[in-house]
Design a protein that fits this description.
globular, six-stranded antiparallel β-sheet, single chain, 14 strands, 4 domains, 16 helices, alpha+beta
Length: 483
């Protein structure tokens, strides 16, 4: 090849082929960079786990702290009706969103149970007969029962409430309208326990993580105390602020006997109250034991109704429920359930110091139910089998080694807790129970109850009995599981 041809070939290579090759390398680099780092438009949307909001109105300022905690956990809000990891519904969603909620994916979570109204409906809760509910009667359906009860207890006073809990007032039996629909009558605590002369209620944050079997937790990090703004005595039924806790309640930091504990010494509301009760020569544990027993009782009484409602949905494991159950005390520290709030107030707009309480409740809640994952992910989906087993493996679930050695078949009920007899459903229930125990933080399990030697299980459903037996097995292996 002569010199001229060689020269022309070099010019062609340097001026045409070389730049083309360099451009090819450059664009290949950009393509694979996007592929490897997920910077293309579609993957950008999937970079964070997603949450969706359901409300009946466009004002969501009262959900500010829910948004804050979710953002801190790496969630991003989406308006997609189907593609989300968490649906936070302020209002009951199962009528309006029935079509989408009946076919949820395994990883999708919803902050309500179908049928939760059996607990949170004011009338249904009030007329439930239990050891921790005051006598109540639906009017006019239970008029005769009410009149009979009032005649037997002429010393008692009653409050008549509308079904929406508006228009509360104390009335004499003769002044109560027993024919007008839309109200109920409830016994009134005439000798309430007072702090500095103020009547109050106690809000306990309660979480139901499972129905069938039942698992219930209460937040032990703190509770919400709300005081009436006017002292109870001298009593006057015309002054509602003496005995009805409203939106403009007296906060704990303005109650003289509790202010120093709470404001100066930085104790929680609960610990401030407990210290005051002990200073009066009484035992605050009576209150909290009563609270826990009351919550166990009411959830067990309503469990069957909620279980039936959940059956209409393909996967009952998608749901959890946060409620605030409000209690009142009489002068002997006996506990009475007053109401349960389906979507408790989590806004500190009115009382700014409550911000910490609300955000800690939400943060602990998300840890408990597995939304506040310790594994960094693009969503709540389990990515592979090895990741799932890293969180909870079969060795974490097995209990009762002596019993399982003797299990030759799976017909014996307890043998269902042995690995060879695990069904997918049993394994899922035990896995969720295990993870909740590991992630409960400041939540305390109250059902299944603390494990004791003299436990009576016969009043529980078979599935609840089996779960309690599993907790007994875990307790035998590790005492941290006993309560």
């Amino acid at each position: 090849m002569n010199l001229k041809v060689k020269t022309l070939l070099k010019i062609f290579l340097y001026s045409v082929v070389g730049p083309v090759f360099l451009y090819y390398l450059f664009f290949s680099f950009l393509y694979y960079q996007e592929y490897l780092t997920g910077f293309n438009g579609e993957n950008l949307k999937e970079k964070n786990p997603l949450y969706s909001i359901y409300t009946k109105n466009n004002d969501t300022d009262y959900l500010k702290h829910v948004f804050i905690v979710l953002e801190r956990l790496g969630f991003k809000q989406t308006h997609n009706k189907f593609n989300w990891d968490l649906l936070w519904a302020h209002d009951y969603p199962f009528r309006t969103l029935n079509s989408s909620l009946s076919k949820l994916k395994t990883h999708q979570r919803v902050n309500h149970f179908p049928g939760c109204g059996y607990i949170t409906n004011k009338v249904d809760l009030s007329i439930t007969e239990g050891h921790y509910t005051l006598a109540a009667f639906k009017i006019p359906e239970q008029r005769d029962e009410f009149l009979e009860y009032a005649n037997k207890h002429p010393e008692k006073m009653f409050v008549q409430k509308s079904n929406e809990h508006r228009g509360i007032s104390i009335k004499n039996v003769n002044d109560i309208n027993v024919t007008t629909a839309g109200s109920f009558v409830q016994e009134f605590i005439q000798r309430p326990f007072l702090v500095d002369g103020y009547k109050f209620d106690i809000g306990v944050y309660t979480v139901i993580t499972s129905i069938n079997p039942l698992r219930v937790y209460v937040y032990k990090g703190d509770v919400l105390f709300r005081f009436c703004p006017v002292k109870y005595y001298p009593f006057d039924s015309e002054v509602l602020d003496k005995y009805v806790v409203g939106d403009d309640y007296l906060p704990i930091w303005n109650v003289p006997s509790l202010k120093h504990y709470y404001t100066t010494l930085k104790f929680s509301m609960k610990d401030s109250f407990d210290a005051h009760v002990r200073s009066q020569g009484k035992d605050p544990e009576k209150v909290w034991n009563g609270v826990h027993q009351a919550i166990r009782e009411i959830t067990l009484l309503k469990e069957g109704y909620i279980k039936e409602a959940v059956k209409r949905f393909e996967n009952g494991r998608n749901f959890f429920e946060l409620v605030r159950i409000d209690f009142a005390l009489d002068d002997d520290l006996n506990v009475y359930i007053m109401e349960a709030n389906m979507s408790p107030n989590l806004s500190s707009a009115h009382y700014a110091p409550n911000q910490l309480l609300y955000e800690q409740v939400i943060y602990n809640l998300f840890s408990l139910v597995g939304i506040g994952q310790r594994i960094r992910k693009d969503s709540l989906k389990i990515r592979n089998k090895m990741e799932e087993e890293m969180e909870v493996a079969e060795k974490n679930l097995v209990v009762l080694p002596e019993l399982c050695m003797e299990c030759n078949d799976c017909f014996r009920v307890e043998c269902q807790l042995c690995s060879p007899c695990f069904t997918p459903e049993t394994k899922l229930i035990l896995s969720q129970s295990y993870l909740e125990h590991q992630n409960k933080m400041d939540f305390q399990r109250i059902f299944p109850p603390a494990i004791t030697k003299d436990m009576v299980l016969k009043d529980y459903t078979l599935r609840n009995q089996l779960l309690v037996r599993w907790y007994q097995g875990k307790c035998e292996l590790d005492h941290s599981w006993c309560s």
